[in-house]
Every structure is written in C-alpha cells, then in structure tokens.
Design brief:
Elements lengths: L1 E2 L5 H10 L5 H12 L13 H10 E2 L4 E7 L5 E6 L5 E9 L2 E5 L3 E3 L14 E4 L2 H13 L9 E4 L9 H12 L11 E5 L3 H7 L7 E5 L5 H7 L8 H15 L3 E7 L7 H11 L4 E7 L13 H13 L4 E4 L12 H8 L1
Parallel strand pairs: 1-2, 6-9, 9-10, 10-11, 11-12, 12-13, 13-14
Antiparallel strand pairs: 3-4, 4-5, 5-6, 7-8
Helix pairs in contact: 1-2, 4-5, 6-8, 9-10
Bound molecules: S-adenosyl-L-homocysteine (SAH).
Length: about 350
C-alpha cells in the first residue's frame, strides 16, 4: 500500500479528482495529517465516510509503529520505530528552553561505520523512503502537548543522509513546506560525513538549511582510521566543497568534532583543525563522546575539553561545546536499536 506521508499535494489532488471529489479535500486531508497530527482516517471528521474508507484502503497513514519509548531525567525522549518490514530506526526528541528539536534517521543502520559509533556496527540494512523520514517528525510531535510544535529538525540520527540524497531532500522539502509541517529551513540541519559531490549538489537546492560536516579528525591519516569508509575522501576535497557551499549559499557550515580521549583532542589536533577552519567560513561544534560499549573509545575529561576549546578559540576559531542529551537512555546514535536487537 502507498504511504500517504511523502506524496505531493498534486498527486493527492489528482487521485481525488479521479474519485470526483472536490479539490478542497486535498487541503483538508493534508491539514489532518501534518497540522492536526491525525493518526487514523476515521478521526478526519470533515471528510465523508466513503472517502475515509477509500483512503484507508489505498494509503497507509502511519507506516511506523512505536516499538519502544524511553525518557531520560533531562526530558529527552527516544523513540524506536518499527517499519512494516520490521526494520527499526531511532528518533530522538530533545527539549531545551523554547526549542523542541527532533533528531531523525535517514537509513536503517549506516554504511559509514565510524569506529566509535553504534549506528553502523551491523552496516546498512536499507535506506528510508521520504515518507518514513518525514513520519518520524510526526511521531515526535505526538509526544508534545497540544499547544506545542516541533521547532527544529536535525538530520543526525542513523544513516548517512547524503548517501540517501533524493529521499532526504524530498523529506526536507516536505518538512519545510507550508502545506505540510512548515518548519523554517533555517531550523533544519543536515549532518553528513562529508561527501564532496553531494555537498556541491546540495548547494544548488536553494534551501536555507544548515549544513553540518562530521569532521572528527583534522589530518587525513587519523580520519581514515576513525572513518575507514571515507578514507579516500581527503580533507582538501571536503574543505573545497564546504567553501563552494558557502560561496553559493552564504550559509556558514558547522564542523562537528566528537572528542575521543587521547585520540583526536591533543594540542596538535587543535592546531591542525584551526588550519583547516581558516580556509573557509565555518564554525566548530565539539561534542564529548557518548560511550558505546562495543568500542574502545572514551570521552575526554573536562580539563581536556577546556584546553582544546581554549586553544581553538585563541586561534580565532568560533567554537561551541554541544551538550550531550540523554546518555542514560542510550541516546547516542544507534545504541537503542543495537540494544533492542540483542535482547
Ligand atoms: N552520518 C551523518 C549523520 C549521523 S551521525 C554524519 O556522520 O554526520 C550524527 C553525529 O553524531 C555525527 O557527528 C556522529 O559522528 C556523531 N556520533 C555518533 N556516535 C556518537 C557517540 N557515541 N557520541 C557522540 N557523538 C556521536
């Protein structure tokens, strides 16, 4: 059965026209799905019964089932969704002041297999469809009070979004569209391992989204050790693509850098990072490692974090330390799914 989330309004309008339904039904149905967060056709009270019936026979409304929900004391909620083929993905809802941020996945598992990350431990199972990517935002919205809305979307869950380019971009456009979720592009972030050709393509999408590149190492040798899959992609090429992205969009790129004790946060690493950052307009987001038992890596100590940050700052690098949310509920990418598959 077709998934109604992810189809274009034009396609829905055409389907309705074939059934001799008035065109205003398109807006009504889209509003139920995206504005009212309706989870079942029978609750769409302004639609005639026969139309509700037809819709439920032809289109799945929610394809994902909530398999597990865990909440940490800081409020972070992690949802494990099960898709019709039994594939499992993770979605995380993070509360901070007025923001309600959802972190969504683009693939089941991950092809990149960073040495420190739980998402890719078993490789890639499959890519998600655009509707499955968008639906995660609705499941997160389900968890909020009636008067609250999801304000920000970060595509930083499981998977490599730019290795599932078309579905991810279609999903971003739906999340952004006024007829759907209407979340401003500036409140949407795509995080990538840094695929130069796809970054250049993204630069031409005319979207004011934020691009984040997971750097994690500022020399090619260390990066190839931590991210063997991306070993052939040299920093030179990544930064040239980042510069191209900035030139085209005038959007400053964020570099993500996870701190792995004794591995990538020595003073020399800060100097190497500053060297690259000076080549184009970007800022650095440091995030301390959220330990994954299957890996040998450990988080950096508060002293190491402070001195690494200070060294970057004195070299003129715009640096922020990102707070880690929900480590007590296995909120690091891929950990909840991994644990679930093992039990
Ligand atoms: N594939 C994309 C998006 C998914 S990962 C990318 O690489 O950017 C989102 C971010 O979380 C990446 O920067 C990733 O390296 C980081 N990450 C993964 N596991 C982590 C962990 N255990 N602790 C802290 N950050 C982690």
């Amino acid at each position: 059965m077709k998934h109604i989330i992810g189809i274009d309004p034009e396609e829905l309008a055409e389907w309705l026209a074939q059934k001799s339904c008035p065109s205003y039904r398109t807006d009504q149905i889209l509003a139920w799905i995206y504005k009212q967060n309706c989870t079942d056709y029978t609750s769409m009270t302004n639609l005639p019964a026969d139309l509700k019936d037809r819709l439920s026979r032809e289109f799945t409304l929610r394809a994902g089932r909530l398999d597990k929900l865990s909440q940490s004391p800081d409020g972070t909620i992690k949802l494990l969704l099960r898709w019709p083929d039994d594939a499992l993905t993770e979605t995380v809802l993070i509360f901070s002041k007025t923001r309600r941020t959802v972190c969504i996945s683009t693939q089941v598992g991950c092809p990149v297999q960073c040495a420190f990350c739980a998402s890719g431990l078993d490789g890639l199972q499959r890519s998600l469809e655009s509707g499955e990517i968008v639906e995660q935002v609705l499941h997160a919205q389900d968890q909020l009070d009636k008067d609250e809305r999801i304000t920000n979307v970060v595509i930083m869950g499981m998977g490599e979004p730019l290795a599932n380019y078309d579905n991810t971009l279609k999903a971003v456009k739906i999340i952004n569209a006024d007829w759907a979720l209407g979340i401003g592009a500036r409140h949407i972030t795509i995080s990538t391992i840094g695929l130069p050709d796809q970054i250049r393509r993204l630069a031409h999408e005319s979207l004011q989204i934020t691009l984040a590149v997971s750097l994690h190492a500022a020399n090619d040798e260390l990066r190839a050790n931590l991210i063997p899959w991306a070993g052939k992609i040299k920093l030179k090429n990544i930064f040239s693509a980042i510069d191209y992205y900035y030139q085209q969009t005038h959007r400053e790129v964020t570099l993500e850098y996870v701190l792995l004790d004794g591995v990538n946060c020595l003073p020399a690493h800060a100097d190497q990072l500053a060297h690259w950052v000076h080549k184009t307009r970007c800022n650095v987001n440091l995030i301390n490692y959220n330990p994954v038992t299957e890996t040998p890596f450990q988080p950096a100590s508060p002293e190491t974090i402070q001195s690494f940050m200070a060294r970057l700052t004195t070299r003129g690098v715009n640096t922020h330390l990102r707070r880690s949310h929900g480590p007590d509920i296995n909120a690091a990418c891929g950990q909840l799914r991994k644990q679930h598959l093992q039990t």
